[in-house]
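User: Reviewer 2 asked us to show a designed sequence for the structure in our supplementary figure. I'm pasting the structure tokens here. Could you produce the per-position amino acids so we can include them in the response letter?
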């Protein structure tokens, strides 16, 4: 997920060695801090993870690591991440700390508030992009902000929908305190698919923006990305509806051959539009 930090400099075509190194440091810093928050979240989810078919194998749920040891490691990771961020742009450190506060607020309370939880999950993706822009000292366009809000909101809903689908398939009632019911699945699917296609509409409007001509020599080739995005988002939701989706759509995208091939195609099309 933290690879999103590199997205602003790639889309701004600001690939100088200095900017890339700054983004690499930002990636390291963000990964350390994010890891610390994930450890805290796992400790807080200990009871729910122990009855989950896959999450019960996590170190804390399985009893391989102690809770006290986990908190100590979390503190060390957080401190290391913040120390690395200090020499960088102050705005990056600010986004880093905001990410930490929002994540902890989510773990402690908001993950149990219906819909608010997925809004926060999608915002955490966007925070990574904002942090990357601050580290690389490049602006974030309104188009990128609009696209990321709808796109990641859809992925966050895929996560919740898949959790419910897996529970429904096993004949188990939700018991993790999220507040969702199996009967909510159809509404979540409507929210998620609508948000997915809203992100694609934003992208098509971006292609027609005059600023695109300043970044791409052949902006019309970007239209080839539209059917790929439609196909991938439709496939994600179709797989989720069939119960064939990992509960984390990011893991699915990184382990699904068709998704990886689509990613390569998207990269090649964007590259051909640039040269």
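Assistant: Here is a per-position design you can include in the supplement:
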């Amino acid at each position: 997920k933290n690879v999103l930090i590199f997205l602003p400099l790639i889309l701004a075509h600001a690939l100088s060695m200095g900017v890339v190194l700054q983004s690499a440091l930002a990636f390291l810093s963000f990964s350390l801090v994010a890891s610390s928050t994930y450890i805290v979240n796992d400790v807080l989810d200990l009871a729910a993870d122990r009855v989950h078919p896959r999450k019960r194998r996590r170190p804390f749920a399985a009893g391989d690591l102690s809770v006290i040891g986990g908190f100590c490691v979390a503190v060390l990771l957080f401190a290391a991440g913040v120390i690395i961020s200090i020499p960088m742009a102050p705005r990056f450190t600010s986004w880093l700390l905001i990410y930490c506060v929002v994540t902890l607020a989510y773990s402690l309370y908001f993950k149990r508030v219906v819909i608010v939880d997925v809004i926060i999950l999608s915002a955490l993706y966007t925070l990574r992009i904002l942090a990357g822009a601050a580290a690389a000292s490049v602006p974030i366009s309104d188009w990128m902000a609009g696209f990321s809000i709808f796109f990641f909101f859809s992925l966050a809903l895929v996560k919740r929908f898949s959790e419910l689908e897996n529970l429904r398939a096993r004949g188990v009632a939700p018991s993790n305190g999220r507040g969702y019911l199996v009967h909510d699945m159809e509404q979540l699917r409507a929210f998620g698919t609508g948000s997915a296609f809203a992100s694609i509409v934003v992208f098509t409007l971006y292609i027609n923006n005059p600023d695109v001509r300043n970044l791409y020599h052949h902006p019309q080739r970007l239209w080839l990305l539209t059917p790929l995005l439609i196909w991938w988002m439709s496939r994600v939701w179709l797989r989720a509806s069939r119960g064939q989706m990992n509960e984390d759509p990011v893991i699915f995208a990184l382990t699904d051959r068709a998704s990886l091939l689509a990613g390569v195609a998207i990269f090649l099309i964007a590259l051909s539009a640039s040269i």
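For the response letter, you might also mention the following. The chain is about 70% helix and 0% strand. The first helix runs from residue 7 to 11.
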